[in-house]
Predict the structure.
Amino acid sequence: MARTGRQRRSATARQGAAQAVDGVCGGRSLADVLPEVLQRVAPGERALAQELAYGALRWYPRLAWVLEQLLERPLRKRDRDVHALLVVGVYQCLATRIPDHAAVSETVAAARALGRRWAGGLVNAVLRRCLAERADLEAAWQRVETALHAHPQWLVDAARRAWPGDWQAVMAANNERPPMTLRVNRRQGSREAYRQRLADAGHAASPHPAAGDALVLDEPVPVERLPAFDSGAVSVQDAAGQQAAALLDPQPGDRVLDLCAAPGGKTCHILEYQPEVASVTAVDHDERRLGRVRENLERLELEARLVAGDGTAPEAWWDGRPFQRILLDAPCSATGVIRRHPDIKLLRQPDDLLSLPGLQARLLAAAWPLLAPGGMLVYATCSMLPEENEGVVGAFAGARSDVAVHPIAGDWGRAQEFGRQILCGDAGMDGFYYACLGKQ
């Protein structure tokens, strides 16, 4: 990075966004790379850098296709950073209200900061051609599925197979900006009372029809502007994720296990939903991510036992006493939450669908002996793909005589043979799957 004297210059918004995109193209999650990048961006440009990074990744399959049409020859692998900057530049030209001259000139300046003389000229030429040929490009991508829907082809195909009548609506919902949905802490007050506090602070919100603790903000705001956020009056959680506590329905005196618990939103909601549980044990294999669970518990003044452990090998951490309720929020493709995590479009690969159902089945089989007779296990994923959902639950229930799959009544999602599926966009929610398994 360029320096003036002994002072390192802060990165511009375009540089920061390109670095984030480059990191994701290199296999890192946006959640990991973006905070590091923003620390190097001038404070006044961080919001723009974040917007450009998210937008470039949200539309990446389309933007990459556009670049293929505009580049006379592909860039070399070692020039991945230039490619990332071009993606950010094309995003500005095609999908933002940034003035054309600013999109070009600022991105060219970011290219020159890379220290390669040719990069600035290339970026200038490509972006000017993009602007000149914008109408032709928009017409052309209507005939290319990956560009039209801005999803990799394997995911377009998987969605079409799974949801032949809904897949296009799901693709469109995945490309939208997600709403900011709050979970009101019922231990501190009612949803309507907190809605009034929001209104008094100038923030309009509506109750979500499918989740009793959920409010949907008309406009997103930083959490520090939410009334009493620091003292635990409210948390940020999509209405789809808020279904877990109600389905689990823990009773006073129950021992509850939250398996694969990080970052802890559902753990905390369980404790808010039923303050008189005997205990909640939150297990996750990633000790670093358990720190997020701890932070959430502390802010909400809640208590749970945190365990860094392998869910497929509970003998290493289980005390032998059965649980009356188990939530298994299984690792999955996360194809139901792409609108919140657009990097999934780049990070997930078709081979994941070969390995993930096996892991999910092992977790389910390992958790089942920990459940007391008469108890309830809720299996959950944020996937829209049946092989991770009904496929796993159906195979498990079919192989055991002590499993009763309980129907889920509700006016949300879509009833399946086993459980209930929410597709992204249903009632404004993220995509989730739930199944309730009773132990006979």
